[in-house]
Write a structure and sequence with these properties.
Layout lengths: L7 H10 L8 E4 L4 E3 L16 E5 L4 E4 L3 E11 L3 E6 L3 E11 L2 E6 L3 E4 L4 E3 L6 E6 L5 E4 L3 E3 L4 E6 L3 E4 L2 E3 L4 E6 L3 E4 L4 E3 L15 E12 L4 E3 L5 E13 L7 E3 L12 E7 L4 E4 L2 E4 L7 E8 L7 E3 L2 E3 L4 E6 L9 E7 L4 H13 L16 E2 L4 E6 L6 E7 L3 E8 L14 H13 L16 H11 L15 H10 L25 H9 L17 H21 L1
Parallel strand pairs: 1-3, 2-4, 3-5, 4-6, 5-7, 6-8, 7-9, 7-10, 8-11, 9-12, 10-13, 11-14, 12-15, 13-16, 14-17, 15-18, 16-19, 17-20, 18-20, 19-21, 20-22, 21-23, 22-24, 22-25, 23-26, 24-27, 25-28, 26-29, 27-30, 28-31, 29-32, 30-33
Antiparallel strand pairs: 31-35, 34-35
Helix pairs in contact: 3-4
Length: 569
């Protein structure tokens, strides 16, 4: 069943906004240890905070709220030198503002119900020294702010968002302090404004203490912006990492992805900013553009592509892209590229209706109401190339190199070159998988040129000989590919137990198929001993002829193996 949150929280937030100024609110102080929020005995006045009052949890205690309804001016946890905790599992909690970490430490955990805040915003890590953590989970949980949602205005604020529904206006992750957004599930549907990661303030606010850093980690769930997502909005350092989930920058016709926005900032005074895309599990779509350091104000604006396999998430931006002031950095994680691998990193100027439909289908499948998307105002083109590229974290096998190509609407990352001869899987090593691939090509009989190692326009046993003798510099029979053919290879293959096992086509190089016919039988020993390497050590310049004793030895091995099998049958 889809979860519909309607407009009830909007009405509640609007009513709360009229309650008055926070600074005039009377403090009602939590005096309990761990107990019920709605038990008046846990409060300094003997009654639960109400209109015009601030609920102050400041003694290290934990106020637990469930199955009830309350309204008040302000919820404040953790003033300077103190701490407080708040837990909500159900019910509706209403206040005009909420502060987690007002110079002290605070933990909020909302696992159910509705937590509705009006026009005075939700702050996590508000003042210097404030350390706040807000955890949101639960499939039906609703958290809403009628105005801002700020993590780390001057303190340190962290959001851990794993489920439920989050609404807010302007969303700032690291204003002057440190903000961290960790999302693994749930839906954030922004009502107005930008998402600003590492804002840092204007030039005239340069004297406010830092560090001005914001980090947003999206590892699942859904994020929709009302306007743009700005990484390094002004003077701050911003970093966004997307591994899974959906980022829909689609709230208005020009909603854009800005890496190093640098708004209201003297050129060069901005921060270090990056967007990291890891793997292919996420979806990223914008009705507007992808822009990197559009005001030429930041120290760096970097698109980091962390390659984990043969496919990679593409950034789709209907309005175009300008990457001319940015850097592309490529990193490898658990994947070794091969020749002709290719990834479309950015695509612009395209009709995104189908993608938005896919996003809405995913949102509905997760149980939420579909998002409201704008129609793109413009369909733009790509402006490039990148000002710089960095492949220091993406070393390729010998013979391969990186290439970035640009078309009118796409940025494509390519692997070019042929790699090491005989390295058919492109992993930088001549290994058993390569000889198995070559053997399969020989059996197929269609003579693919990449397997024609001796250049005679045929792919046959001769090419296998070239791979084993000349490229790998070993011998037929070297099942463990340690550079020698000796008794250890017999141990290796007989442990696999595939010698004349009656199972068709189940053997490969490692399990005794040295002639490439997918079987391990006596013909493989003929192939191996004809190659003349048994007990010769590493391959020398001229191969030796097998000694009669060697042939006698293999005969004895086969006789013993046959006897053992008969005994076991």
């Amino acid at each position: 069943m889809r979860r519909s949150f309607g407009v009830s929280w909007l009405i509640a937030a609007a009513m709360l906004t009229t309650q008055g100024n926070i600074s005039q609110a009377q403090n009602v102080i939590w005096t309990g240890d761990t107990g019920s929020f709605v038990d008046g005995g846990n409060w300094s006045t003997g009654s639960v905070p109400d209109f015009g009052e601030t609920a102050l949890i400041n003694n290290g205690g934990t106020a637990q709220f469930a199955d009830d309804f309350v309204e008040m001016q302000l919820l404040k946890l953790g003033q300077s030198g103190s701490s407080g905790n708040f837990e909500q599992s159900s019910g509706q909690f209403n206040a005009n503002g909420a502060i987690f970490g007002d110079g002290g430490s605070a933990n909020g955990s909302i696992t159910g119900g509705e937590f509705i805040i009006g026009g005075d915003s939700i702050h996590v890590g508000l003042l210097p020294g404030g350390v706040g953590v807000l955890n949101i989970s639960g499939s039906d949980t609703v958290v809403a702010s009628g105005d801002d949602f700020q993590l780390g205005r001057e303190g340190t604020g962290t959001l851990n968002f794993s489920g439920g529904f989050l609404h807010a206006g302007y969303t700032v992750i690291g204003k002057f302090g440190t903000g961290v957004w960790n999302q693994t599930g749930g839906l954030f549907d922004q009502d107005f404004g930008d998402i600003e990661i590492g804002d840092g303030g204007r030039d005239d606010q340069a004297g406010t203490g830092g560090p001005r850093t914001g980090t947003m980690n999206i590892d699942g769930g859904f994020v929709q912006t009302a306007d743009s997502i700005a990484i390094g909005n002004r003077r701050g350092d911003g970093a966004v990492s997307i591994t899974d989930g959906i980022l829909a920058v689609t709230g208005n016709a020009t909603s854009s992805i800005l890496i190093g926005r640098g708004m209201d900032t003297t050129p060069g005074a901005g921060g270090v900013n990056s967007l990291r895309i890891k793997g292919d599990a996420a979806k990223i779509v914008a009705t507007g553009s992808l822009l990197m350091d559009p005001n030429q104000a930041v120290q760096s604006a970097t698109l980091i592509e962390e390659i984990t396999g043969p496919s990679q998430t593409t950034i789709y931006a209907a309005g175009g892209a300008d990457v001319g002031n940015g850097t592309l950095k490529v990193e490898l994680n658990g994947y070794t590229p091969k020749a002709n691998d290719s990834w479309v990193l950015v695509q612009v100027g395209l009709d995104i209706d189908g993608m938005l439909g896919d996003i809405d289908a995913a949102v509905e499948a997760a149980g939420y109401e579909p998002m409201q998307h704008a129609f793109p105002e413009n369909f733009g083109e790509l402006v490039g190339p990148f000002a710089d590229t960095d492949f220091s974290g993406a070393s390729l096998p010998a013979g391969l190199s990186w290439e970035v190509s640009y078309t009118a609407d796409s940025i494509i990352l390519n692997v070019v070159g042929t790699g090491a001869t005989g390295d058919f899987d492109g992993n930088g090593v001549l290994d058993a998988n390569d000889i198995n691939l070559l053997s399969a090509a020989v059996r197929a009989g269609n003579n693919p040129s990449e397997y024609d190692l001796n250049g005679d326009n045929a792919v046959n046993q001769t090419d296998r000989d070239v791979w084993v003798n000349d490229l790998k510099k070993t011998y037929m029979g070297d099942s463990n590919l340690d550079g020698q053919f000796d008794s250890s290879d017999f141990v290796f293959v007989f442990q696999a137990g595939q010698y004349e096992d009656g199972v068709a086509g189940n053997s490969n190089w490692e399990t005794g198929d040295w002639n490439g016919d997918t079987e391990f039988d006596s013909s493989d020993f003929v192939t191996a001993f004809q190659n003349g390497g048994f007990e010769n050590g590493p391959r020398a310049a001229v191969a030796a002829v097998p000694e009669p004793a060697s042939i006698t030895l293999v005969g004895m091995i086969l006789l013993c193996w046959g006897a053992l099998r008969r005994r076991c049958v």
